[in-house]
Amino acid sequence: MSKIKLAVFDMAGTTVRDEREVEKCFFEAIQATNLSISTEKINSMMGWSKILVFETIWREELGEDHPEYSAKVKASYDFFCNTLEAHYNTHGAQPYDGVLDVFEFCRSQGIKIALTTGFYRKVTDIILAKLGWDKGLDGSYMSLINTPENIINCSIASSDVKNGRPAPEMIQLAMAKCLIDDPKSVINLGDTPSDLQSAASAGVLYSVGSLYGTHTEAELASYKFDQLINQPKEMIEIIRRLND
């Protein structure tokens, strides 16, 4: 019997191809709403809840007590959301090579598959639909029974929890929905520092960082993780090893 009961995967930059379009949408919103921020600063916040990114930027720019703070946050966030939704509606989404092989391996081992993301629910749904990964999920975005139709067992967006990454709440909600009590039966894969931080806070058995997404080894090196990988299919051997 598999020791791993739940595999939690980030979306953009981990399972879903990221050609820096999220970063580009951030910069379009930043420029349109007269903010000034470096590429490095934006990259350091990838994986966060997107509203939290703009709250943080405007807090540093104006201060949270500034009378225009809330309006500025809303204007930037709304522009970003509209741009991001238009992108995925127009261009769709594609998985990284090997991701579906990893999913199929997990299914063959009786391991449930959960997707977590810093995206809010609306854009998450657009991406899932473009990929066909929403099939078989119920109204709460879950399916505990594997069928020929469903690809994943659970989808968690940052807007589904009070605190997105780097807090552990999305992993914890995925566990609850998939009826998993022990974090030491969970493996997590993500491409950002906040993915690694949330996995560490959740106390998962094994935390894996993706080097084919938005961050380099140097950018992830100072965070807690168990292993870094260069392609998704490496997850199959990791899970096999952990289950021996």
UniProtKB/TrEMBL annotation:
Domain of life from the UniProt record: Bacteria
PANTHER family: PHOSPHOGLYCOLATE PHOSPHATASE, PHOSPHONOACETALDEHYDE HYDROLASE
GO cellular component: a single term: cytosol
Pfam families xrefs: Hydrolase (PF00702)
Residue intervals passing through the bilayer: none
Alphabetical UniProt keywords: Hydrolase
Name of this chain's protein: Phosphonatase-like hydrolase
Gene source species: Sphingobacterium psychroaquaticum
Cross-referenced SUPFAM superfamilies: HAD-like
GO biological process, one term: DNA repair
Gene Ontology molecular function terms on file: phosphoglycolate phosphatase activity
